[in-house]
Amino acid sequence: MKQIPRHRHVPSDIVEGPDDWLLPYLRSLRDPNKIERSVIEGPGPLLEGDAFPTEPEDRQLFRLTQDITGYHKGVYRYDLATDSWVRLSTIHLWGSSFPTEGLIPGDTFYHTTQDKHYYWDGTQWVFDATKSHGQLTDVGADDHHAKFTTGDHAGVEHLASFLKKAIQPYNSDIGFAPKSGDEHDSISWAAGTIKFADGGTQAINAGSFNDLAVGTHYIYFTVGSATLSVTTVYSDVISNIRGLLCMVGVVSDTDEQIFIQPFYSKGLNIIADVIAVKVL
User: Fold this and answer.
1) Would you give the DSSP letter of residue 201?
2) For the chain, which residues make up each domain, given as ranges?
3) Fewer C-beta within 10 Å: the chain N or C terminus?
């Protein structure tokens, strides 16, 4: 029989037949290569499922889609010599206790109770100091990536927590209006609250600015202060502890009311910090 490409012939012999008189005839027809079965050599197509095939071919590839006893999800290759499935790709695991089965060198593990990373060196789990929070300044255990997806922070709040307050997106419910009785060059506001993207808030007291000079003025908050400030220099507003809440304009014509442009939010599209005279 001609050898089939990518197949390996396993020898056998015909030892019995349906009837004694037919046995010599069957033996005369046997293939000199004594084929018992033809085994495919090579990876073949990549199949997948939640359990391994029951009659795999040598070096057959298979993607396991769920953990089973002694095996974790991943891509495996069947080894006929050892009659076992060998995982080819490393994986990331997590939980409150260390896995003990189905591991290969390079697998990583996040211990949710210890809040630490480990990797499997082939014999034991080794603490991975490069992923320890102790290597980062001002980052606590609650800032771990696992917390980002399943813990105390929502996604936006988690990312924002790495930024200083005034750099974060924020919303304001503070209402500005011309001051009653002096609408030409004075402005007032009611008490309100600024809410930051990390979930924090800052209360702002009611107040006013009176008899402002002709020109453009910028009203801003300072992190940690309940009192607003005003300046005619826009760069004074740009800081990681200060944020713009309102822009006002006063003209020389006393019959004209003060111009007020409040900014109720700072986000990713139109940012209050870059809105200024002659920009829009």
Assistant:
1) E
2) 7-40, 91-152, 166-274
3) C
Q: Is 154 exposed, middle or buried (0-12, 13-18, 19+ CB in 10 A)?
A: middle
One CATH from 2.60.300, 1.10.510, 2.60.40, 3.30.70 for 166-274: 2.60.40
User: What confidence tens digit (pLDDT) does each residue in 254-277 have?
Assistant: 889 999 988 887 754 444 444 544
The first and second tokens of residue 41, run together, are 């050599």
Q: How far is CA 91 from CA 75, 103, 110, 127, 278, in A?
A: 10, 9, 11, 16, 55
Q: Do 101 and 93 form a contact (C-beta atoms < 8 A)? A: no
Give which of 232, 242, 241 is closest to 276, Cα–Cα: 232
What secondary structure does DSSP assign to 132-183, as a single string?
-GGGSTT--GGGSHHHHHHSSS-HHHHHHTTS-GGGS-EEE-PPEEEPTT-T
169 burial class (0-12, 13-18, 19+ CB within 10 angstroms)?
middle
